[in-house]
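Comment thread on ticket #2218

A.B. wrote:
> Attaching the input chain for the structure job we discussed in standup.
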Amino acid sequence: MRGVKRVVLVLSVLIVALVVLGFVLENRQAVSVSFLGWASVPLPVSVFVVLALLIGMLIGPVFAVLFRRKVKM
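C.D. wrote:
> Ran it. Output below, let me know if you need it in another format.
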């Protein structure tokens, strides 16, 4: 059973990696993002989307832990 779970996990990671690679290859147009007077250097659209995804993946669990502690109190 552990072997099946490991194979499913590896296949899932490979599929996600292929989807991200396809997204990056399809979105190579350079854009500049400006926010509150700050402007970035022109980078591909995919860079900003992947950065937003990674930041969300880091911030989401932090908020979940903080709100879970408030509910328990």
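A.B. wrote:
> Thanks. Noting for the ticket: The first helix runs from residue 2 to 26.
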